[in-house]
Write a structure and sequence with these properties.
heterotrimer, A alpha/beta, B mainly alpha, C alpha/beta, A: alpha/beta, Rossmann fold, five-stranded parallel sheet, 13 helices, 16 strands, 41% helix, disordered N terminus, B: mainly alpha, two-stranded antiparallel ribbon, two-stranded antiparallel sheet, 11 helices, 4 strands, 72% helix, disordered C terminus
C-alpha cells in the first residue's frame, strides 16, 4: 500500500504514456516542474468522453513542455480516475479519495476536473482545505460555485472550484429563451432522466420557460434503466405539445429519441449538452435523430476555420476527433499555464496559494476566446451554443459535424 | 386524441411490453417449477439473446432502419434471425446449467442462487467489455406499416410481436401438456424423486427446461431489439426483474400464469406511466410483488405448493 | 520449501488455539491502530477507512446470509437509509419555519435557529454520535417492515423481494427532491464533532472511528454467533422444519437476523455520509449490494473474520492490485512487443472478476477463505475402539416429567388432494406410558406425527395435550408445551457440532435474547454454562458413544450416532411427551437392543413416549399399548400380545392371499 504516487497512475491508452514517462523523469530528475492532477471518470458510463477530455488537457501540457515549459517549469500530469466498476460511473467516494491524493502530493499545484458534479461535491471541501485550485472543463451543476453553499464547498474561504464551462443555471434558461424567442414555442413538455445533471438542467429550463410565458404541459422523470418510454410519450402525444425538452444524458436519451420519433415525430425536440454526443448519431441514427436541438455550455469553436489546425493536430495525435469539452479542457490547461507564467515571471516559486490567486485574477486568450472568472469561480463568458442534427452528405452519418451549428442561445 | 383512443393506445403499448415480459417470465417459471431455483442468469441470457439477434441481422447485411424488406426475403431474414438467436441462447442456457448449476444440485441453501447471480454478472460484463457501453442501433427491415384506430396507431411490429409471442407460448404449452418430454417435465416438477423412480431422466428434463426457457428469453431479446430499434448491455436487469414479478404474479411454476402475469405487468407499466408517473413505475411494480406474496403467494393461477423442504 | 514451512509452523502449532487467537487479535489491533502513524498519507488512510466501512457492511450481511442463510440482495438499501437519515438531519435540505415548538430541541442542540430574510428557519444539527444508534434502529425498523411479509415465505422469495427493495429505495430517494435533494445530492452534510472539534475533511479521525466500528461489530457478531440466538439462526439455515420442531420461532428468528443486519448497515451509512459530506442516490445501487455479497462469499459465509478479510481483499483488489497488475502486463507487453497486453486494463474487468469469484467460490470453495466451522480431527484409533459403555438414563431435572394430562387425539382427518392420509383417527397416550404406532409403509404413521407436532394441518378433529386444545398451534409453540420429536429420515443440523445440536434442543427452555447475548450479564453467562453442562449430561445417556465426539460435526457421524444425537436433541428440550419416529431404523441388532434399553430407561424415569417402530421385538419390549394404522385408519389397538393375534393386523401386514395361504397351511 506504499509507494510513490507515480506508480499508482491509471494509464489511459497511448495518449497518457508520454506524460507518465515525463512524470518519472520529473520525480527523479533535476528539472524544475509542477504537477497537475487530472481527475475524470475514466471507468464506466462516461469513459469515452473522459478520454477525449483528458486528451485535450494533456495535449496542451505536451505542447507547453515541448517548448521548454513555462519559465523553465515543466508541467507533469498525474491522472486520477473517479469512476469505479461498482458504481458503473463516477463514484463520489473515489473522487474524495482522489482529492486527498492530489492534496497529499506536495508537487501538485493545480488540478483539472471533474467531469461530474456529484464528484465535484465530494472533492471541493477537501481541495479547499488543501488550498488547491481545480478547473472543471465539464461539470455544470451550479451548487458547488453557488455562494449559498460557500461554507460547505469552500470551507477555507476562497473559491477553488473554477469552470471553463457555463453552468446549467445558464444552459437550461438560455435554451428556454431560444424556444421562446427564436422558435416561438407556446407550450412544452419536459422530461428528465433522474440523473443529477438531467434534473438540474430540466429544472433550470422549466423555471425560465415559465418566466418567458411558455406553457408547461407536464413534467415526467424517466428511469434510465427502463427500456420503454412509449407509454409516457403516448401520454405526451395526447396533449399535443409543440415542443419537448429533455434534460439528461444519452443512456435514456437514445431511447427518448428513437421512441419519440415513432410517436411524436413532428414535435420540436431539444436537450442540453447531454444529447450532444456520438451515440446520438450512431445508436439513434437517421431518421430518428433528425431535427434534434442540442446545446453546449461553451462558445462553439470546433467549426471555426482557425480551429481547423487544432482539430487536425488533436485527431492526428489521438486517432479520434475532439469534442467541445476537449476544448474546454485544453483551455483549462492554458489557464493553469498562464497562472504559472504570471507567478514565475517575477522569479517567484509557484505555490498552491499563489496559483489559486493567479487563476482567480487571470485573463487569458484561449481557443474559446478570452477566459476569466467571477468571484465564485464561474466563467465570465456564459455563451451557450445551439446545434441541430441534420444529415450533411459531406460527412459520414456518425461524424460529430452532423451537429450543425445554429448560433448562440439568447442570454435573456 | 380522445380518452378512449388514448386508453386503446396505452393498451396496445402495454400488450407489447407484456408479450416480452411473458416470454422472459416463462424461462423463470420453467426452471423454478423443476428446480425451485430463481435463475438470475436468465436476466442476461435475454440480453445476450438480443445481441445475438443483432449480430445475426448485421451478418445478413442489415444495418439501421434504412433497408426495408418485404415478402419472402423478409420472412427468410426474420426466421433465420429467430432460429439462430433461439438456438444460441438455448445452448447458452444449457451450458450454464451443466457447468455451474449441476454440481450444486444437491447443495442446500442459497449456493445455487448465488451462482446464478455470478453467472449473470459474468455475462453482463463480457458483453460490456467486448461490445462496449454504448447503445446499439438495431437493424429493422420491417416495413413501417401502420393502421389507424381512431387516433390510436397500431404498427406492424406490434402485431408481429403478439403473433410471435403467442405462437411460441402456444407451442410451449402444447409441448408441456402433450409431448412425452413435457409430461416428464411436469412429473419432475411435481416430485423429482417419484419421477426418477418412474424412469424419468431428470437430468435430461432439466436440460430441456433450461434450453427451452433460454431459447424463449433469446426470442424475447430479438423481439426487444426489433421493437425498440436498439439494444444495450444494460437491458437485462430491469426487464428481468419485471418478468420475474410477472411469473410470481401469475403463479410461479405455472406456464399460463407466466403469460397472464406478463400481460398484466405490461399493462400496469403503461397505465402507471399514463395515470401516475413514469418515475414511480418500479415502485408500483415492486409493491404489487410484495402484495401478491403477502396475500396470494401462489399467484393468480398457481396452486399452493406443498413445502418440499 | 514445504519442509521449511513445516519446520517454521511447528513452534506456532505448539501454542494453544485460544492463546494463538488472542495473539493474532492483539497483533491485528496494534497494526490497525499504528497504520496511520507509520503511513502518513491522507489518501491511503481514507481508502483504508472506506475499506473498514465496507467491512462493517460485510459483517452485517454476514448475519443475514452467513448465520441465518437468508439471501439479501438489496442490502445497500439499508446503507442508504442510514446515510440519508444522517444526511437529512444535519444538512440544509429540510428547513421548516421556526416556531416555539423547536425551542426544547434547540436546548438539546438537536436544531439551531437560522436567521433568514424570509423568516427564521430550523436547521437540524443532530449529533453524529446520536445518529449512529438512531440510524441503526431506523434501518432495523425498515428491515422488520419489509422482512415481515416475506420472511414467513420460502427463502428464495426473500432474494427477489430484497432485490426489488434495493431497487426502489434509490428511486424513492431520487423522486423525493424536497427531502433528499434528489439526484443532485445532499449539500452541506455536517462532519462529526468531538469535544467541540469538527472532524472536517482530514481522513485520520474517520479512520479511527471506522476501525472502532469494525471492532465493535466483530465483537457483536461473535457474541451473537456463540449464543442461543446465533444457534437458532444456524438451525434455521441448516433445516427450517427441524428448527421449528425444536422450538425456534421461524419468523421471529429470521426477522431478528434481518433487523440486526440492517442495523449494521444503517450505522455504516451514517458514518459513510458523515465522511463524504454529500450523498447521491447512485451510491446505493444494486452493484453495491452485490459487492458486499462477494465479500461475504469470498471470506466465508458465517465466518466473522472471513468476511472482514473478504472486504479488505476486495478493497485492495479495486484500489491497488488491479492497477498494479495492469501496469505489469503493460510492461510485459512492451518488453515482448505485444500490443494487446499493453492495452489491457484490468480495472475495467473488476465486475467480471466479482462474478467469477461468486461462481468459483460456490463451485469449489463454498466455505470461503476462512471457513466458519473448522473440521475437528477425527477420533484416534484408541478412542474409536474404546469399549462401549452403555450409559443409561440419568434422573436429570426435567426429564421424565409426567405431571400432565397426556395426549388425546380425536377424529383427526388429513387429506392431500384426493388422498386421505388419515381418516378420523383416535389415539390416547396416558401420562408415563409408552404407546407404539405400527402399520405398513404409507399407512399414515408419520403424517400422524406431523399433525401432532404442527407440521401438517388437520382437516378436522381435535388434539388435546394436558387438557388444552393444541390443534393449529405452530410447531415451536408445541415444543414449548413439551411435545418433542425425532424424524424418520433424521433431520439434524448437519454442519453444526453434536454439542450445538443438543444446545439447540434447549432453545425453548433458555431465555437469552440478542441484547443479553452481546452484553453477557452474569445471568446469561450462568444460563449458557448450565446449558452446556446439561447438554453433556444428556449426551452421556448414550454412554461413550457421543461423549468423545461432542465437538464433531454431525454430518461426519455414523448413522446410529446421528439417531442418538437426534434423540438427545429432543430430550434436551425437556419434553413431557417424546415422539420417536423409527428410532432404531438402520441399526444393527446389538445397537437396537442398546437403544431400546436406553429408551426403556427414559420411560422408567416417567417420560411419556409415543413411538413409531417397525421392529416388533422393540415394540413388544417397550410398549404398554400398540395402535395399528392401515391406509390412514386405525384398525386395531391393544397390548402388544393382543395386537399380534389380531387377524386384521396380519392381513394388513401380510396381504390377504398370504394370510389365506397361512391359514390353509395351518
Amino acid at each position: 500500500m506504499t509507494g510513490h504516487p507515480v506508480s499508482r497512475r491509471a494509464v489511459i491508452g497511448a495518449g497518457a504514456a508520454l506524460p507518465v514517462l515525463a512524470g518519472f523523469k520529473a520525480a527523479f530528475g533535476q528539472d524544475k516542474s509542477i504537477t497537475v492532477g487530472i481527475n475524470l471518470s475514466l471507468t464506466g458510463a462516461d469513459a469515452e468522453s473522459a478520454k477525449r477530455i483528458f486528451n485535450g488537457a494533456a495535449m496542451a501540457f505536451d505542447e507547453i513542455n515541448a517548448k521548454g515549459g513555462v519559465n523553465g517549469y515543466r508541467i507533469v500530469v498525474t491522472p486520477y480516475d473517479d469512476g469505479t466498476a461498482t458504481a458503473g460511473q463516477y463514484d463520489p467516494a473515489q473522487a474524495a479519495t482522489n482529492a486527498r491524493k492530489m492534496v497529499a502530493n506536495k508537487a501538485t499545484m493545480a488540478a483539472i476536473g471533474p467531469q461530474m458534479s456529484g464528484a465535484g461535491k465530494a472533492m471541493a471541501p477537501i481541495l479547499s482545505q488543501g488550498d488547491l485550485a481545480i478547473i472543471t472543463p465539464a461539470s455544470t451543476n451550479p451548487d458547488i460555485t453557488d455562494p449559498k453553499f460557500a461554507a460547505q464547498y469552500r470551507p477555507a474561504g476562497k473559491p477553488i472550484y473554477f469552470r471553463t464551462v457555463a453552468t446549467d443555471a445558464f444552459q437550461g434558461p438560455h435554451m428556454a429563451n431560444y424556444y421562446a424567442d427564436v422558435l416561438k414555442v407556446k407550450n412544452v413538455y419536459i422530461l428528465d432522466d433522474s440523473g443529477a445533471y438531467g434534473v438540474g438542467l430540466a429544472d433550470a429550463f422549466q423555471a425560465q420557460a415559465e418566466k418567458k410565458g411558455i406553457k408547461i404541459l407536464g413534467r415526467d422523470r424517466l428511469d434510465p434503466k427502463a427500456a420503454d418510454y412509449t407509454a409516457v410519450l403516448t401520454k405526451i402525444k395526447s396533449m399535443n405539445p409543440e415542443a419537448l425538452f429533455y434534460g439528461g444524458v444519452l443512456q435514456a436519451g437514445v431511447k427518448v429519441a428513437k421512441q419519440s420519433y415513432d410517436i411524436i415525430p413532428k414535435v420540436i425536440k431539444a436537450g442540453g449538452d447531454g444529447v450532444y454526443g456520438p451515440e446520438m448519431l450512431s445508436a439513434v441514427g437517421a431518421p430518428a435523430n433528425q431535427g434534434w436541438y442540442a446545446t453546449i455550455a461553451a462558445p462553439h469553436v470546433t467549426d471555426d476555420p482557425k480551429m481547423a489546425n487544432w482539430i487536425k493536430a488533436y485527431t492526428d495525435k489521438y486517432g479520434v476527433g475532439p469534442e467541445d469539452y476537449s476544448v474546454t479542457a485544453y483551455d483549462a490547461a492554458l489557464v493553469i499555464a498562464a497562472a504559472l507564467k504570471k507567478i514565475t515571471d517575477g522569479g517567484a516559486a509557484p505555490t498552491r496559494s499563489a496559483m489559486r490567486d493567479a487563476i482567480q485574477s487571470i485573463k487569458v486568450d484561449t481557443l474559446q476566446g478570452p477566459v476569466s472568472f467571477d468571484a465564485n469561480g464561474d466563467i465570465m463568458d456564459k455563451t451557450i451554443s445551439v446545434f441541430q442534427i441534420g444529415s450533411d452528405k459531406a460527412f459520414p452519418p456518425d461524424d460529430m459535424r452532423q451537429y450543425k451549428y445554429i448560433g448562440v442561445a439568447p442570454a435573456s | 386524441m380522445t380518452f378512449g383512443d388514448l386508453l386503446l393506445q396505452q393498451t396496445i403499448n402495454g400488450l407489447s411490453l407484456g408479450a416480452m415480459y411473458a416470454l422472459l417470465a416463462l424461462g423463470f417459471t420453467l426452471v423454478y417449477g423443476i428446480l425451485e431455483l430463481i435463475n438470475f442468469a436468465h436476466f442476461n441470457v435475454f440480453m445476450v439473446g438480443s445481441f445475438v439477434g443483432l449480430w445475426t441481422l448485421q451478418a445478413m447485411g442489415l444495418s439501421g432502419q434504412s433497408v426495408i424488406l418485404t415478402g419472402l426475403p423478409l420472412l427468410g431474414v426474420m426466421l433465420t434471425a429467430l432460429a439462430v438467436t433461439m438456438v444460441v441462447s438455448g445452448v447458452l442456457g444449457v451450458a450454464i446449467e451443466r457447468l455451474s448449476l449441476r454440481p450444486l444440485r444437491n447443495v442446500r441453501g442459497p449456493a445455487a442462487m448465488i451462482t446464478t447471480i455470478g453467472v449473470s454478472y459474468v455475462l453482463f460484463n463480457i458483453v460490456l467489455l467486448t461490445a462496449g457501453a454504448d447503445s446499439k442501433n438495431y437493424p429493422n427491415p420491417l416495413p413501417p406499416l401502420t393502421w389507424a384506430l381512431g387516433d390510436a396507431v397500431l404498427r406492424l411490429r406490434e402485431v408481429l410481436i403478439w403473433i410471435v409471442a403467442v405462437a411460441l407460448m402456444l407451442a410451449l404449452h402444447l409441448f408441456v401438456q402433450r409431448s412425452r418430454l413435457g409430461k416428464a417435465m411436469r412429473a419432475t416438477a411435481q416430485d423429482p424423486e417419484a419421477a426418477r423412480m418412474m424412469g424419468v431422466e431428470v437430468d435430461r428434463v432439466i436440460v430441456i427446461a433450461f434450453f427451452v426457457g433460454s431459447a424463449l428469453a433469446g426470442a424475447g431479446g430479438l423481439i426487444f431489439g426489433l421493437y425498440y430499434n436498439f439494444t444495450s448491455f444494460i437491458i437485462g436487469f430491469t426487464a428481468g426483474l419485471r418478468a420475474f414479478t410477472a411469473a410470481v404474479l401469475g403463479g410461479i411454476g405455472n406456464v399460463p400464469g407466466a403469460m397472464l402475469g406478463g400481460v398484466i405487468i405490461g399493462l400496469i407499466e403503461a397505465m402507471g406511466s399514463q395515470f401516475i408517473a413514469a418515475a414511480w413505475t418500479d415502485v408500483i411494480i415492486f409493491s404489487i410483488l410484495v402484495l401478491v406474496l403477502v396475500f396470494r403467494p401462489a399467484g393468480l393461477l398457481g396452486r399452493v405448493a406443498p413445502n418440499r423442504s | 520449501m514445504t519442509r521449511a514451512i513445516a519446520l517454521l509452523s511447528r513452534p506456532i502449532a505448539a501454542i494453544p488455539d485460544a492463546r494463538r487467537r488472542q495473539i493474532l487479535i492483539a497483533v491485528l489491533t496494534v497494526a490497525a491502530l499504528a497504520f496511520p502513524l507509520l503511513h502518513d498519507n491522507d489518501a491511503d488512510i481514507d481508502a483504508a477507512a472506506n475499506a473498514a466501512a465496507y467491512a462493517t457492511l460485510a459483517l452485517g450481511l454476514n448475519i443475514v446470509v452467513g448465520f441465518a442463510g437468508l439471501l439479501d440482495l438489496g442490502y445497500a438499501a439499508f446503507f442508504a437509509i442510514g446515510a440519508y437519515a444522517y444526511g437529512i438531519l444535519t444538512s440544509f435540505q429540510v428547513m421548516p419555519p421556526w416556531s416555539a415548538f423547536w425551542e426544547p430541541f434547540a436546548f438539546l442542540y438537536l436544531v439551531e435557529r437560522l436567521q433568514q430574510p424570509g423568516g427564521d428557519v430550523v436547521h437540524f444539527t443532530v449529533s453524529f454520535w446520536i445518529m449512529l444508534p438512531v440510524s441503526a434502529l431506523l434501518a432495523a425498523f425498515f428491515g422488520v417492515l419489509f422482512g415481515a411479509p416475506t420472511l414467513r415465505l420460502r427463502g428464495d422469495y426473500l432474494a427477489i423481494v430484497t432485490l426489488g427493495f434495493g431497487e426502489i429505495v434509490p428511486i424513492v430517494v431520487r423522486n423525493t427532491d424536497w427531502l433528499t435533494n434528489g439526484a443532485a445530492g445532499l449539500n452541506g452534510v455536517q462532519a462529526p464533532r468531538l469535544f467541540g472539534v469538527s472532524f472536517g475533511v482530514d481522513a485520520l479521525p474517520y479512520y479511527y472511528v471506522a476501525i472502532a466500528m469494525v471492532a465493535l461489530l466483530i465483537f457483536v457478531s461473535i457474541r451473537l454467533r456463540d449464543s442461543r440466538i446465533g444457534r437458532a439462526w444456524m438451525a434455521i439455515r441448516e433445516d427450517e422444519t427441524a428448527a421449528m420442531a425444536m422450538g425456534i420461532d421461524r419468523t421471529r428468528t429470521k426477522l431478528m437476523a434481518f433487523a440486526i443486519g440492517a442495523a449494521f448497515a444503517g450505522m455504516t451509512g451514517t458514518f459513510y455520509v458523515a465522511k463524504l459530506q454529500t450523498a447521491t442516490p447512485e451510491m446505493f445501487g444494486f452493484p453495491v449490494s452485490v459487492m458486499i455479497l462477494v465479500m461475504v462469499v469470498l471470506g466465508g459465509m458465517g465466518s466473522v473474520w472471513g468476511v472482514v478479510l473478504g472486504a479488505v481483499i476486495l478493497q485492495l483488489l479495486q484500489s491497488w492490485w488491479l492497477k498494479d497488475l495492469s501496469e505489469w502486463l503493460h510492461t510485459l507487453g512492451a518488453a515482448i512487443g505485444n500490443a494487446w497486453l499493453q492495452q489491457i486494463d484490468l480495472t475495467r474487468a473488476v465486475e467480471l472478476i466479482f462474478g467469477l469469484i461468486l461462481v468459483f467460490m460456490m463451485l469449489y470453495r463454498r466455505d470461503g477463505l476462512i471457513p466458519a466451522t473448522r473440521k475437528e480431527p477425527a477420533l484416534n484409533f484408541e478412542q474409536q475402539h474404546a469399549e462401549v459403555r452403555r450409559g443409561g438414563a440419568l434422573p436429570l431435572a426435567g426429564l421424565g416429567n409426567s405431571d400432565h394430562g397426556g395426549l388425546d387425539v380425536r377424529g383427526v382427518t388429513v387429506r392431500f388432494g384426493g388422498l386421505v392420509a388419515l381418516n378420523a383417527v383416535d389415539l390416547t397416550v396416558p401420562p408415563s406410558s409408552v404407546v407404539a404406532v405400527i402399520g405398513p409403509n404409507g399407512s399414515g404413521k408419520s403424517t400422524l406425527f406431523n399433525v401432532i407436532t404442527g407440521l401438517t394441518p388437520a382437516e378436522s378433529g381435535v388434539i388435546h395435550f394436558d387438557g388444552a386444545d393444541i390443534q393449529g398451534l405452530p410447531p415451536h409453540e408445541l415444543l414449548r408445551r413439551g411435545i418433542a420429536r425425532t424424524f424418520q429420515n433424521i433431520r439434524l443440523f448437519n454442519n453444526l457440532s453434536v454439542l450445538d445440536n443438543v444446545l439447540i434442543g434447549q432453545h425453548a427452555r433458555l431465555t437469552t435474547g440478542p441484547l443479553a447475548a452481546v452484553l453477557r450479564p452474569p445471568a446469561a453467562r450462568q444460563e449458557e454454562a448450565d446449558a452446556r453442562i446439561r447438554a453433556t449430561e444428556i449426551v452421556s445417556i448414550f454412554g461413550n458413544r457421543l461423549l468423545p465426539r461432542l465437538a464433531q460435526t454431525v454430518s461426519h457421524l455414523s448413522y446410529a450416532n446421528r439417531r442418538r444425537v437426534e434423540i438427545g436433541r429432543a430430550l434436551a428440550s425437556q419434553p413431557r411427551i417424546l415422539l420417536l419416529d423409527e428410532p432404531t431404523a438402520g441399526m444393527n441388532p446389538a445397537e437396537t437392543l442398546e437403544l431400546a434399553e436406553q429408551i426403556k430407561g427414559l420411560h422408567d424415569l416417567g417420560l411419556t413416549i409415543l413411538l413409531i417402530e417397525h421392529k416388533l421385538d422393540v415394540v413388544t419390549r417397550l410398549a404398554d399399548k400398540v395402535v395399528v394404522l392401515d391406509h390412514g385408519e386405525k384398525i386395531a389397538e391393544g397390548t402388544p400380545d393382543e395386537v399380534r393375534r389380531n387377524e386384521q393386523v396380519l392381513t394388513a401386514y401380510l396381504g390377504r392371499g398370504t394370510l389365506a395361504k397361512a391359514t390353509a397351511d395351518a
